[in-house]
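Practice problem: Large ribosomal subunit protein bL33m
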Amino acid sequence: MAAKSRARVLITRLMSTAGTGYFYTTKRLRVADKLAKMKYDPVVKRHVLFKEVKK
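Answer key — structure tokens:
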């Protein structure tokens, strides 16, 4: 019986560093480093850094 293969793409959650609890979900490759992006946080009405967190 063959072993199951792992998915190459992960669905990850990017959490706002402003502490508002707002998050985006995105996809990334399994072999890539953790994501960190500047995106818009509508709670504080400005662009802030969003970092990848565990689900």
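Discussion: The first strand starts at residue 9 and ends at 16. Students who identified this feature from the tokens alone can consider the problem solved.
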